[in-house]
Amino acid sequence: MSHAQQLTSRIRSIEPVGEYFHIVFEAPTIAEFVEPGHFVAVAVGGVGSGMLLRRAFSIHNATAGDSIEVIVAAHGQGTQWLTAVSAGTEVDIIAPLGKPFLLPTRPVGCVLVAGGYGAAPMGLLARELRDRGCEVEVILGAATQSRLFGVLELTRDADNVTVTTDDGTSGLRGRVTDALPDALARINGQAVYACGPMPMLKAVAEVSKAHGAFSQCAVEESMACGIGVCMTCVLPVVGDDGVTRMVRSCVEGPCFRGDRVRWDDVNTVPVDAFGAPVQGGH
After folding, report:
1. Could you give the domains of the chain?
2. How far apart are CA 234 and CA 219, in angstroms?
3. What's the rounded Cα separation, in Å, for the pair 140 and 220?
């Protein structure tokens, strides 16, 4: 059952964290329903703005009956506006949205893999998994040290944290998938949870499958509405019946089984997908 609500929220605080910003929204009627993997859709630009599309952010943390937190990279016009406003600014938000990560029903070894600010939902997830008796390994990666997020927090929340950077400025030089096989072996990992850029998710899903682990990936598709109306976030996913369908990341996701997403066909409509245009047809 969906507990999503639309409300006017006051920004309690905005603080820089490395290359990102940590924003706390007052959300007294939303926070108690947040689960790891949920996201919030935020209206940007203020009243009368020409920026009509919302911006979606993974929920980093939730304090029941109080607030929700997100991590924002100020890349485009909308996120630059959001990170520049003052505490006390009121914004329109909808949350909690999407289908969260599926959690194991018994204690198993779990590896959490994140790239950059894709680490945002991982603290909430790690705490939930450990509450269920799971051993939790975390792998955090980024291009360089300043783009890492959550290392100290996750060191507290997980049993072990491995850091990788492409340039070797922190932790191991390399990519998260270089460290994944060892992490799986250390804890007899059976479940992998990932959040980050799409190429990283594809690689994590492939390595997980090769090592017999079940993977779930929180995809980073553009989610303009967050409620399944605009169809900007569709991607090809194979269903239980073996049929590929174009599904909406914001409603059917953003958390998908890694072995079900057709990563090589993202941003296309595969010719064998259900409802795909007939080649040469009229």
Report:
1. 5-97 (2.40.30.10), 109-265 (3.40.50.80)
2. 11
3. 17
Length of the chain: 282
The span from the CA of 57 to the CA of 60, in Å, is: 9
Rounded to the nearest angstrom, the gap between the alpha carbon of residue 117 and the centroid of all alpha carbons in its chain is 9
Report d(CA 8, CA 67) in Å as an integer: 13
Do strands 214-218 and 5-17 pair parallel, antiparallel, or not at all (unpaired)?
unpaired
The β-bridge partners of 62 are 68
Contacts of residue 252, defined as CB under 8 A and 6 or more positions apart, other chains included, come to 99, 237
Mean pLDDT computed over 26-51: 92
Say how far apart CA 253 and CA 249 lie, in whole Å.
Answer: 4
Rounded mean pLDDT, 252-268: 96
Distance CA 228, CA 220 (A): 15
CA distance 227 to 274: 22
What Cα–Cα distance (Å) separates residue 168 from each residue in 20, 137, 146, 172, 204?
20, 20, 12, 6, 20
**What's the average model confidence in pLDDT over 216-240?**
87
Question: Under a CB-based contact definition with an 8 Å cutoff, are residues 113 and 122 in contact?
Answer: no
The predicted model scores a pTM of: 0.94
Which residues on adjacent β-strands are paired with residue 216? Answer: 193, 257
CA distance 234 to 96: 19
Residue ranges in 58-197 assigned as alpha helix (H): 77-84, 122-131, 151-157, 176-186
Beta bridge partners of 255: 218
